[in-house]
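Case study: DUF4265 domain-containing protein.
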Amino acid sequence: MGMSRSQDRRARPDAVRVVFALPKEDEDWPPAASERVWAFPIAENRVEVANIPFFVRGIALGDVVRTEVDDEGVLWAREAVQGSNNCTIRVAVLRDGALAGDRRAVLDMFAPLGVEGEGIAQSALVALNVPPTVDLPAVRDLLRRGESQGWWDYEEGCTTPAWRALAGQA
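Here is what the predicted structure looks like once written out:
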């Protein structure tokens, strides 16, 4: 899916994998019991999330998370302790829509707005990182337009007060 800044940063030698437990929302979602994301150690029992989560709710690229190591040496995420002010938006590209499930088309549409993302091939899913410095109303408008045109469905995996204020949800 091409390189995003989060993928470049994962090349750091101190990168670790941290596991987030995924509570079931319904029988089909999320499609796994846990999600592994790349992170960088920043203090004892603290890591900075280094890639965009696909399924974890309430976590975005750059957030700081408290961790715990289990008896088998697995690093588990326990709670967010500092937000990055980034939003995570998940876009499910509709295979029968005009984009025909093309994840690259979605990434190309959001790139001019300063929004990066990563895709999962098997599910036609794109996770977008929306930094606080971009034109949030333009990003929201594109998300809504794509949904109304039948290009994709989307959900807000992690939002900020500035994002929620756009819809009067603050």
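For the exam, be able to explain this: The chain is about 20% helix and 35% strand.
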